[in-house]
Amino acid sequence: MQSLIFFIVALSILVVIHEFGHYWVARRCGVRVHKFSVGFGKALWSKTDKHGTEFVFAALPLGGYVKMLDSREQDVSDDEKPFSFDQQSLIKRIAIVSAGPVANLLFAIFAYWLILVVGVPGTKPIIDEVTDGSPAALAQLGAGDELIAINGKATPTWNSVFQRWLDYAQDEATVSLTVASGDIVTEKQLKMPLIGLDKANTLFREVGIQAYHPPIPAKLGQVIEDGAADEAGLQVGDELLSANGRDMPDWQSWVALIQSSADEPLSVAYLRNGKYQMIEMTPKADDQGRGVIGAGVAADAAVFPESLKAELRYGPLSAIPEAVLQTWSFSKNTIKSFWGMLSGTVSTENLGGPISIAQYAGSSAQQGLISFIGFLAMISISLGILNLLPIPMLDGGHLLMYFIEWIKGSPVSETMQVQGQKIGLILLLMLMFVAFANDLTRLFG
Description:
Strand content: 15-25%
Distance between the termini: 21 Å
Number of strands: 18
Oligomer: single chain
Order of helices and strands: HEEHEEHEEHEEHEEHEEHEEEEEEHHHHH
Radius of gyration: 26 Å
Structural class: alpha+beta
Largest sheet: 4 strands, antiparallel
Helix content: 40-55%
């Protein structure tokens, strides 16, 4: 229920931003706006302003629209034609249609700016292990090294390192690393491996490094129903001690063992309420063949040293270009993902629908306001890019029609527009079907 509530809140915010873009530019272009609706169906609340625009919150919060005066949809008198959308110049119609996606992108810039000014907490990017023969090993990185900057840009946290590296990995670029080894600071060159956006979660593994984290006792803070841990009888509060007779001193050791033990039985010793007990547990294989048990470590189990804490923060002015850069980077990666799905180089399994978005909305909100704002920024960019796709019925489809009108010197025929809308409806339904099917697959396996 909490995820559903935050999903509705997030979607309503982004719809208002998108539709306000259309509304604001339409009004500035002299177009009469009849209705500004958030949601569809029966109106739950409405108010009409002095300009005759009805603002509505409707019962089905899965989108919204701005209804303008348009002589193609209703009879318009000669006196009112100057205020009709379809009677505006081509440049004005392009501006009005583009304003929705542009508003989404501007909101993302503002959201990232706010996050960067407030500050994003994290951990210092100190390397724990380097894999032999990996790009990191070839760059002569070693355990204990701290990554201070990448190509001159400060990287105070692991998240900032991830964001920088992910961009360069798309082009297999060679990056310059500023590395601190104790009191010695050196510059090293790292050749990034080519990593698809759908494999971004493997970035550090492909580079060949493991982040340093202080040892965390293997005390369970979460046990997921029907997971391997739950089926074996483990409970929240249990502390894992050993596997197959081998002592496992911390949670990191358990993660490494479980991931490498898919479908292999483990004899596990643990403490429950001070009593020593034994169980048999078999990790299940995930989509990538790694073992999982459906359990999480207790948040209060780790004592995190102050010396490892860090924060990514910018001043109000310096945060502006960085916010623009982050918006551009995510936009570029989103476009690459869409193109990859069309060309077959990126699996459509990465496409998420309303269930996935609702789950992300709920989890981000639980992590705090800054995390939720970051989620809104990413979804706002995705919504803006999606609407710019040249699919009839979307803003990008209308812009395509205007481009054709500009080329041929006259509007696209009504018959062609109708056929285009039919094609667009089919494409959107197919897209929604794939996204919803992916959601159900993730939910029920």
